[in-house]
Amino acid sequence: QVQLVESGGGWVQPGGSLKLSCKGSRVVLSDLAVKWFRQAPGKEREWVSTIFRNSRVPDHAPSVRGRFTMSRDSARNMVYLVMNRLKPEDTATYYCNANNSWGQGTQVTVSA
């Protein structure tokens, strides 16, 4: 069974940065497109970013484009979401998704 574990969430002030990690087990993440989603309280889960299995440039939702980036560490079987210039509206639980599997999520809170 595929297992994904997110980490790296926390509290940060507006304008700050965080780096989220997604660790894969029983799956080779470099063979897959890996996505990040987020869900804020009272809102639907929304797509944030995708890193593709080939050399295609990662794609990001318009709300985070230019602020968030994705990368891989194939040796560690991990995918990262680097979030810069964070805004209060980025506050949400962030989830990693690959091969139709979800992690448990990691909470990101952006506030003064």
Q: Can you characterise this structure?
A:
It is built from no helices and eleven strands. The protein is globular and about 40 Å long. Helices cover 0% and strands 50% of the residues. With 112 residues, the protein is mainly β. It starts with a strand and ends with a strand.
- What ranges have pLDDT less than 50 throughout 5 or more consecutive residues? none
Helix fraction, binned, reads under 10%
| Rg calc | 13 Å
Q: What can be said about the biggest beta sheet? A: 7 strands, mixed
Order of helices and strands: EEEEEEEEEEE
Taken as a percent bin, the fraction of beta residues is over 45%
Q: Compute the separation of the termini in Å.
A: 40 Å
Q: What is the overall pLDDT average? A: 96
Query: What is the approximate shape?
Result: globular
- Number of E-type strands: 11
- Assembly status: single chain
What's the helix count? 0
SS-based structural class?
Answer: mainly beta
